[in-house]
Amino acid sequence: MEYSELKHTKKHRQQKSSIHPVKKFTFRFFTQLLLTVILFLGTLIAMKMDHNIKNVIYQNVYQKNLKFASTNELYQKYLGSILPLDFGISKGSGEDVAVFQEQLTYSDASLYKDGGVFQVGEHYMVPVLESGIVVFMGEKENYGTTVIIQQVNGIDVWYGNIKAGNIQMYDYVEKGDLLGESLSKEIYLVFQKEGKFLDYKEYVA
């Protein structure tokens, strides 16, 4: 099935509420803003009062590679969406939303460069293997058009030889979401953590 033929949809119905959606959004937005400001100011005060805390923050934020995906997941878990601009109507508004919750399927796989090459169908719709943030979209030598997702588990996954779907840089994508479609009957997957390439067999069933 081609990317353009995806027809599975799910009807989301919004339950009636006595609170206007705009009022919900305003309350939620300012609550999150207040909590963020409190956390920021609290960190600054702690850094000023204790030099050791300042050193810990400096080492983990500036000297090491801060994992955006893990940070985003923690923020959303405790504070909600980073940019709550849906005004309470983007989800559960009664509109049809495309549904795609799939697992990677392939007929054969073999070692290729720093990862693996997977035999798939023509115009194969590529699912996201694990939730994370899109940190790269472009050309990679030997892999063609590539999308890199920094997963919440700290592993960067390269998806090569694909045409990206409706995603942009720094989008947060969830496991099973549609990433795009293959440009041929092959896709490439590379797993990397802290600059080291990993054995793809440990992460693909």
SSE map:
Elements: E1 9-11, H1 21-49, H2 51-63, H3 68-79, E2 96-98, E3 108-112, E4 115-119, E5 125-127, E6 132-140, E7 144-151, E8 156-160, E9 162-164, E10 172-173, E11 178-182, E12 186-193, E13 196-197
Antiparallel strand pairs: 1-2, 3-4, 4-12, 5-11, 6-7, 6-10, 7-8, 8-12, 9-11, 12-13
Helix pairs in contact: 1-2
Note down, in words, how this protein is organized.
The protein is an alpha+beta fold. The protein has two domains: 7-99, no CATH class; 101-202, Glucose Permease (Domain IIA), CATH 2.70.70.10. It contains three helices and 13 strands. It has helices spanning 21-49, 51-63, 68-79; strands at residues 9-11, 96-98, 108-112, 115-119, 125-127, 132-140, 144-151, 156-160, 162-164, 172-173, 178-182, 186-193, 196-197. The strands form three sheets. Strands 3, 4, 6, 7, 8, 10, 12 and 13 form an eight-stranded antiparallel sheet that branches. The chain has a three-stranded antiparallel sheet with strand order 5-11-9, with no helix packed on it. Strand 12 and strand 13 (196-197) form a beta hairpin. The protein is elongated. Mean pLDDT is 76; it is low at 7-17 and 82-98.
